[in-house]
Amino acid sequence: AMVVKCINELVERQSGRDEEVFAEWNQQMDKDRRGEVERYMTESQFDLDGESMSLDNLDSYLEKLYEDEMEEKIKATFMILQLVRDPDNLEVLVENEQFLGALTRIFREEAKKSMDLVINIVYIFFAFSNFSTFHQHMTQYKVGDMVMRVVELELKRDAHRKEELEKKKADMDAGELETQMKKMRITEKKQDKLLFVCIRVLLNLAEDISIERKMKKRKITPILVQMLERKSPELVLLAVAFLKKLSIFLENKNEMIQCGVTGQLLKHIPAASTDNVIMGVLRLMLNLSFDTEIRTRLVQEGVITKLVDLMKKPHFRHVCLKLLYHISMDDKCKSMFTYTDCIPIVINMVANFPEKQVEKTLIALAINLSNNPRNAGIMAQGETLNTLLSRLFQTKDVLLAKMLRNISQHDGEIKRKFGEFVSDIAALACQADDPNLLVELLGILGNMTLSDVPFAKILTDYDMINFLHKHLEPGASEDDIVLELVIFIGTCIQDPKCAPIFANSHLVAALYDLMADKQEDDEIVLQITYTLFRCLQHECTRVILLEQTQVVSYFVDLLYDKNAEIRKMADQTLDLVMEFDEEWATQIRLRKFQIYNAEWIQAMEREDVGGKDSFYRGRMAIEDDIEEDDIGYGDGGGYGGGKGHLMSDLGKAGDQQDALFVDDEDDDFGYDD
After folding, report:
1. N or C: which end of the chain has fewer CB within 10 A?
2. For residue range 276-326, what is the model confidence (pLDDT) as tens digits?
């Protein structure tokens, strides 16, 4: 029931609820921002002696700013604050020539003397900063610079107070210490209120990217990271929102790493006092998690366990899935999911997802995790694999098929479980209309390397020979499908019962022809070479290859290929030919000797200028002397311009070849069989 509930909530998010939830969250943030002045006014218990506020009295309020008594100045700013509660008054106030000048002067000169005065003035600035129309006026009076100075001053004061208290702790008794701690908490609460409105003003002004750059030079990023240590949830949430805005720039992200932002963020999961703080932290981490270094630090500090626990709460599930998906992209992190509840939760949600297509973030996470053998083992436990495959047969979900393909690549018990469904998978592949689904299904079949899979029966029952012919015709299928078909044939041919089936068809020759069509695709060439290597192990298919094609000459050509894996596979295939055909073995040894000793042969040529009576001829000299009756490519057709250099002189080597190997006929000059 818990899983079904989680799934239903995830479906709602998939259908647009996710965007609505975050839109509501942002709207609430905006509402909170507009209501900050109202809340501050409500919390402030300031005695106005029944005096009513009016724009007509603005001049008298401004005059009080110049009084010697600090109380009068605070009262005057509070009265002005009453006026800015009404947005209609803002334009009138900003057009007053003395208004901003007087406020900024008092703010600049009296900021260090009274925190109450500073808070009132900053709240006035905050009311104006909510509207971008007034930002130009605030910039003109350098409001942002002054607010930054206040923030820096308050942080220094806070550090100094804590340092002084730490020094005096040893000389205080319990009562005195408790009194000092109480005073410290009161001061911190008031300071948090000031820092909160200051950061609000800076965040609003940072809508202008040029202003944001200036703030960066003033070290706004380290300041905001430092704010994450504060106890006020509102201040922490505001700092997180500001950091999220800054995190889209590389230099800011790098600076956050240097400031240890990951450790500060994780302290709030799940310890934060409000869901809004947790959501803000998760969204910031999601932005930062695109960076590999940050992902690594988050994992080292235990983020996976925290996210898995949070995933059980509906409000955070979708963001947690995205974060876990980012983390799962790193191979070294995949194994860390094994020891959490993440895999059972994710697989249950996939298996029981009510929609036809599994939600993309959820299935993407499952796909990444399935690449790890231990994770795949957990995914295939019990009846889970049967449920997943049954879902695949019903929904034909491509991404679900990709996840199952990843699971099927792991050896052992997993493949044995898949073996029971090979016939059903083959039937679905023959019926598949979606090429992407066909690729994944063929991938699963290609992974079934078990000896007890009845591939011969499957090929016959589902008429897969015609299916393979149809898709291997030139231009009939995309390269991804062709590659998987070749791999599937290579898997089938391991079963000796399949060799006669392939020999009686034209598939073996078709594979040889396919090498010409796909000669520039290294992966396809490599897989065809491996498949033909398997074909050469069976007599019926070996006869076709050696007598009806020029495959040996092409494999010699591949010894020159720039791809090391192709060269290695071609060399092993030629060694296999040498085991079964002595005539070819003699010619292959000669060619290998010429290839691997080309430099020595060329040196010998240079010593014997003229070259006609030279016992050893260099590679280029041999190619020039090829006779028309040599076994090779004849007039150079077929694979011309393809892989490596065409070596078409593997025909009759004559007396010269026999003389070369007369003393040690079985010696292959050190090359592995």
Report:
1. N
2. 999 999 999 999 999 999 999 999 999 999 999 998 888 899 999 999 999
